[in-house]
Amino acid sequence: MALYKPVVVQTCPRLGERITQDTVYWEGYKAPIQIKEFGAVNKIDFSPVPPRNYAVTASSRVSSFSEVFTFLSFSWYHMRKLNVFFLYQIHIYGRYSHEPIKTFSRFKDAAYCGTYRDDGNLLVAGSDEGIIRLFDISGKAPLRQFDGHTKPVHVAGFLSDKYRIFSGGDDYSSKLWDIPSGTEIVSYREHTDYVRCGCASKVNADVFVTGSYDHTVKLFDARTKSSIITIEHGQPVESVLLFPSGGLLVSAGGRYVKVWDVLKGGQLLVSLKNHHKTVTCLCLNSSGQRLLSGSLDRHVKIYSTTSYKVVHSFSYAAPILSLALSPEDETIVVGMTNGVLNIKHRKPEEGKEKSQKKRQPAYRTYMRGKTYMPKQEDFSVSKPVRRALRKYDKLLKSFDSSKALDAVLEPSIRLHTPEVTVAVMQELHRRGTLRSALAGRDEKQINLLLTFVARRVIEPRFTSILVTVADIITDIYQPVLGQSAIVDRQFLRLQEAIGKEIDYQGELLEVLGMMDTLFASFAEKKVTSLEETGSNSPTEIIETDE
User: Fold this and answer.
1) Cis omega (within 30 of 0) for bond into 51
2) In whole angstroms, what is the distance from residue 454 CA to residue 231 CA?
3) Residues 197/211, Cβ–Cβ less than 8 Å
4) CA distance 281 to 269
5) In the prediction, which pLDDT does 359 show?
6) Most exposed among 74, 98, 190, 396, judged by the fewest C-beta atoms under 10 Å?
7) In the β-sheet with 331-336, what is the strand arrangement from edge to edge?
8) Distance set, CA 377 to CA 373, 374, 380 (Å)
9) In what order do the strands lie in the sheet containing 142-147?
10) Distance from CA of residue 430 to its chain's centroid?
């Protein structure tokens, strides 16, 4: 007896995202791990040295009651009575830890911009108090406190010489501090609004950059008393980034990410507008060939630094405030406004090799050697592969046409894989049992069939067989029209769908006729040659339009 051949489901290619090397590379992360912080995450910074721990800065006020109160009239004692407390901390997370391995909590107000030094031994952070604190990673108490700002400090970082700190605050000032003595070196007051971002050059130990809500980015040299370059971004600046070479500067503010040539005095190279809301953070990958930007539109865009085109993007559940990428691009961490920390680790490359079990040598290897080649008189015996039949194939194998059709009309198949339903209908039509499978159905089943046909008959890949199904259903159930309002409504929907499709086809034919006329008018002009006259004059060529 011949073996049963399963139903062949015709699949059509779907238009999708083009698979590139960037797609494969950036999709090579495991499922994300989410950690709930106690407030909005405003800064994430990876340690430059192994084991690649990262500092997470977040601040929040937590209370035990839901009503909104004004706390200004309460003393600290009354706040404690009302069970109101404040969480101002910087957490240090291990590479694969889901809980903080260390916490710096010596803040009386919100903490900002926890940043590592290049050697990974020190951490600096600003605060709402206007105080900058310097921590030793191995300790808890601050090593130094730098007082000088009169308003919150949102920017703090190290210069590349490791012995100076730069800062920027809401008092519109940018300052430079000496770590050994704990004193202020120089203060710049050139911005006219809050200073909210900054970075230091890795090439020149005297150069650092600040960005402000006054729409400007300023580049300072510690050896001068004023800024050396001023760049107009055009929007409140949320983040700035210097390339490792120090020649290019990236600024983010509003919906724009702009790249500037510092060596040409701040000349604009490219302006990118790929986000729908404010861009809040910037980051470079380990090679410097990809630029990442995070935004309040819940997306992280990845750009090529050669063409500045988007090569990949990530989507998140909440607006993004901070973003960091570990060395070697092994871990990407995103901080969001709802306090969630989203962590993705790269899949190990050796996983595939480890998963492959060592295959034992075949019988012929033992008997005839590994290099034995089959001869012409040898017979190769292969074990047939047994395939499991699906439910509808089993029913078709047993010639139960009606139940096979019922099986492919289940929601999981007809809604998500309609091509399977249509393939079974095609097989029933080929066998000549489609009419019997469609007959003898109640009101609910007829309604289901007509709904499917009316929805899918306009798809070109299904039209031929579903028109046949519609004809058979109309022929079978025409005598019962008028007996069920539900069935009558579905027949009207089917009639409306087919009518609209016919109208569309007519309009397309009209457009095709117009295009044919246009193409004919622009057709290549024919070249006609006159016969040569008796003289030896050159042939005259006349172009004629038809």
Assistant:
1) yes
2) 60
3) yes
4) 20
5) 59
6) 98
7) 33-36, 340-345, 331-336, 320-325
8) 12, 8, 10
9) 111-116, 122-127, 131-136, 142-147
10) 46
Take residue 372 and report the two structure tokens written for it.
């034995």
Identity at 187, one-letter amino acid code: S
Per-residue pLDDT reduced to its tens digit, 88-105: 678 899 988 888 999 998
pLDDT at 316: 95
Q: Token pair 């901080």 is at which residue?
A: 335
- The amino acid occupying position 447 is N
- Which CB contacts under 8 angstroms, 24+ apart, belong to 2-5? 4/389, 4/393, 4/396, 4/397
Non-local CB neighbours of 123 within 8 Å, separated by 6+ positions: 55, 90, 104, 114, 115, 116, 117, 134, 135, 136, 137
What strand order describes the sheet that includes 216-221? 195-200, 207-212, 216-221, 229-232
Write the CA distances from 447 to 25, 84, 441, 450, 453, integer angstroms: 48, 60, 10, 5, 10
Top-confidence residue, 181 or 1:
181
Amino acid at 90: I
Q: What is the pLDDT of residue 8?
A: 86
Q: Which two tokens stand for residue 344?
A: 């993705």
Q: Confidence band (pLDDT; 50, 70, 90) for 4?
A: confident
Q: How many residues are recorded in the chain?
A: 546
